[in-house]
Amino acid sequence: MTETANADVRIVATGLYTPPNAISNEELVSAFNQYVDKYNDANAEAIAKGALEPLQKSSAEFVEKASGIKSRYAIDREGILDISRMAPRIPARPNDQLALLAEIAVFAARDAMRAADLKPADIDGVICAASNMQRGYPAVAVEIQDALGIEGYGFDMNVACASAAFGIETALGLIRTGARRILMVNPEICTAHLNFRDRDSHFIFGDVATAVILERADGPAGGEAWEILGTKLLTKFSNNIRNNFGFLNHCEREDGAAPDAQNDPHTDKLFIQEGRKVFKEVVPMVSELISGHLATVGVAPDAVKRFWLHQANLAMNEFIARKVLSRDADRTEAPVVLDEYANTSSAGSIIAFHKHRGDFAAGDIGVICAFGAGYSAGSVIVRKTA
Ligand code: COA
What we know:
By secondary structure, the chain is an alpha+beta fold. It folds into two domains: 8-216, Thiolase/Chalcone synthase (Peroxisomal Thiolase, Chain A, domain 1); 226-384, 3-Layer(aba) Sandwich (Peroxisomal Thiolase, Chain A, domain 1), CATH 3.40.47. 33% of the residues lie in helices and 22% in strands. Strands 1, 2, 5, 6, 7, 8, 9, 12, 13 and 14 form a ten-stranded mixed sheet that branches. It has a two-stranded antiparallel sheet with strand order 3-4. Strands 10-11 form a two-stranded antiparallel sheet. The longest helix is centred in the C-terminal third of the chain and has 23 residues, at 275-297.
């Protein structure tokens, strides 16, 4: 566990890119159920003989009740809803074109740079912190840096859904060792790693990109500013959320065939999870992390105006907030964006922070907390200064 408690670095802006296409639960479930009918019809004989289990239908009511999710944004709607495909259609781009993951990060970065009135020359480095990188190398962050015209350096990091908190901690370290400003981006094309044929998880994720700009707090801020009172990180190995996609895939299949994300029976190359176990194990881990962190920094839970939590499951966030506060939190104290965005992995807590902080006055304190696969979790305590 690492912990820091200094207010020498501040957040001066956030940015958001939301894809233009949304998919409601009803639309997603309707496509899934058509696929189920088609599968069960095609396999009617085997099912009648008891040789094959029929697929079960999904339900929009279940999805909203179990997760709080009502809708999600997607880079490509049609491919996901096309029952002969059930995956977004994302054409490969030539190497001399900006990669899609870099492109959505650049949109979010420009939004943040505009908000703080910063030019590329004001930024010294770029961190791309996300769950799913588009490629092994060159680092996506270096491409984002180039597209924005930022001097200095860029690098990628992945701590799954907790990536933004780990990215903030890393930016803090870079600023303490000399950088003036760091841009930290979280582009997430989560729909591309989701198995839309899996009833248990087909509704979970959405696509988005967020950006955070941090700077050394050694003078008056030019505009809005949030001093970082402390950061605290924690990881604990678990197989309950996992994605085995990687560069060894084409070497490891016994039949020697290359992986085919479309029809591959090796579905663990896509997102898999034991949702119930995750719920049970992550809630105590995260609530203890936040409570312990607040105690270390000397902030009473009731002095926290807002908890901008990772957006995976509504009940999970309600439990975490209840454990930290020893009472129920209302939607103002623990805002919800997953109803509209679904789980956007590393970006979730930053979307919540981006959209729900306008009512803060100087001196008000909030907690950004990201958590997910690893398990991994990070808490960032901020106080508005200007
Ligand atoms: N439609 C209708 N019913 C469904 C369904 C669907 N799409 N998916 C599952 N069900 C059924 C199951 O078959 C099960 O039925 P049974 O009780 O007859 O066996 C029942 O609903 C409950 O399934 P379960 O998987 O236990 O649901 P849940 O209440 O745990 O909710 C999640 C599922 C995934 C929403 C929830 O566990 C969750 O969000 N966990 C946290 C995950 C998390 O944070 N992950 C981080 C990822 S980064």
